[in-house]
Amino acid sequence: MAEAGPKLSGAQRAAIFLLGVGEESAASIMRHMEPREVQRVGEAMTSLVGVSDDQLTEVLGEFNTKAGSINPLGLGASDFAKRVMVQALGEDKANSMLAKVMPGKAKTRGIEALKWMDPASVAAIISEEHPQIMAIVLASLDEEQAADVLSELPKELHSDLMLRIAKLEMIDPAAMEELDKVLEKQLGRASKTPPRAVNGLTSAAAIMNNVDADMEVSVMEALRESDADTTDKIAELMFVFDDLMDLDDRGMQRLIREISVDTLVVALKGVDDQLQEKFFGNMSSRAADMLREDLDAKGPMKLTEVESAQKEILASAKQLADEGELMIGKGGDDFV
């Protein structure tokens, strides 16, 4: 059976919604989703068994409530602008103009194609290219995919690539043209591309948040030897498990509803008492007591298992932050 309503993840709720609207509507909706979103929702669909009428009613009702609170005048304004400009100016001129009025929004067809490929294939495509081209590609991918691609590349390149990514600010047209030539050679695609604004430090931190613990340590150590100042800036932007202490009570309670008890038990093994109490204090007394008992009864755990559970919880926190349901970050006005 699928989990009870409050314990359903965002991906599971999306999967139930798509199942509820039928194949044709679901297909139309998924055409507008990013590759990673399609993957997460697809995995959630395959994991759902025996969705109840109550669950479907709850999810559709939640969607109706949220959709009713959105001002339609502000919805999709950027997409509207793009469609109008493409019709008026043609795709190439429109993309160039959009790069000026909507920095970072214009997409290249080549990069979009890479987003649908598996990490090993992307790594194979860029592995023979100049490190700066490799860095541009990684910074343009979803951070999870970029982390997976980085893992497929030779270890001796890792710190150099992360340093290059961290120092990216604006990718000039010549670099984008060179990138498109690479993609044309490998994918048979080419397009004239405008400049693209890039927050290199944020991209580097996001990628490092998604690599495994051993790789994170080795890359950060190598980075520090090359450029300690940039390494410190990346570290400041990275979101780690201890940063959950900065969540307010409402955000912590929302996060707890999103994660399973089994995952939480593993993730809390070995963390300091203060962070454990942060979780306990945002649960009912009965739930907190049961969690304490489970922790006490849990035998020694492999560090890799604990880190995996913590990364799963951090991924949930980031997803909720992206959906505007909680705020994470080390700065007062920072959202991740």
Automatic annotation (TrEMBL):
Domain Flagellar motor switch protein FliG C-terminal: 221-328
Keyword hit for Cell inner membrane: yes
Function field: FliG is one of three proteins (FliG, FliN, FliM) that forms the rotor-mounted switch complex (C ring), located at the base of the basal body. This complex interacts with the CheY and CheZ chemotaxis proteins, in addition to contacting components of the motor that determine the direction of flagellar rotation.
Family statement drawn from the similarity comment of this UniProt entry: Belongs to the FliG family.
InterPro entries (alphabetical): Flg_Motor_Flig, Flg_Motor_Flig_C, FliG_a-hlx, FliG_M, FliG_N
Keywords per UniProt: Bacterial flagellum, Cell inner membrane, Cell membrane, Cell projection, Chemotaxis, Cilium, Flagellar rotation, Flagellum, Membrane
Protein name: Flagellar motor switch protein FliG
Entry-linked PANTHER family: FLAGELLAR MOTOR SWITCH PROTEIN FLIG (PTHR30534:SF0)
Domain Flagellar motor switch protein FliG middle: 119-189
Domain of life: Bacteria
Compartments reported by the entry: Bacterial flagellum basal body; Cell inner membrane
Organism listed in the record: Congregibacter brevis
Major location category of this protein: other
UniProt membrane topology term: Peripheral membrane protein
Residue ranges of domain Flagellar motor switch protein FliG N-terminal in the record: 7-106
